[in-house]
Amino acid sequence: MRPAMPHAIVTTAERPDLAPVTARWRWEAFARGQGRTLAEVAAAEAATAAGTDPMPRTWVLLADGQPVGMASLAAHDLDPRPDLTPWLAGVFVAPHARGRGHAARLVAAVEAGASDLAIPTLWLYTRSAEGLYARIGWRTVETFPYRDRTYALMRRDLTPAAR
């Protein structure tokens, strides 16, 4: 039996050296084929890491000191819905580290960061992880077509009275 790995969650603002890793993940998982180059995504990740604004902000899960996943708080994430803000965005766990609860840890970190900013509601959209988010307290608001696929739009109310 393998010993449990110690986990830590940091932001790229705290650890800007992680921005190249999060840039590659973001590009490979979400941006490839969407008209953005890896260099453009890397520049945006570096700017986020260097920025002092609360959004965008990226959290990175470290297992035994190595990055294994990320999640972000972003003002905008879905072009057809500019009316909704802010968003849980870019949740990604490296394939070798999946199935260990890391996505839920990362989502909780983003939710805590949003709560610290007095944000009452977060939004996300997903094509494949609706069940995961539902299990950790998110609720589906609607399903919609986007880029020739069907997605679920979900929300999480962060105010104590709404939970």
Automatic annotation (TrEMBL):
MF terms in GO: acyltransferase activity, transferring groups other than amino-acyl groups
SUPFAM superfamilies, A to Z: Acyl-CoA N-acyltransferases (Nat) (SSF55729)
Species name: Methylobacterium nonmethylotrophicum
Domain of life, source organism: Bacteria
Transmembrane segments: none
Alphabetized PANTHER family for the sequence: AMINOALKYLPHOSPHONATE N-ACETYLTRANSFERASE-RELATED, AMINOALKYLPHOSPHONATE N-ACETYLTRANSFERASE-RELATED-RELATED
Protein name: N-acetyltransferase
Pfam families xrefs: Acetyltransf_1
CDD domains: NAT_SF
Keywords, in A-Z order: Acyltransferase, Transferase
Domain N-acetyltransferase: 9-159
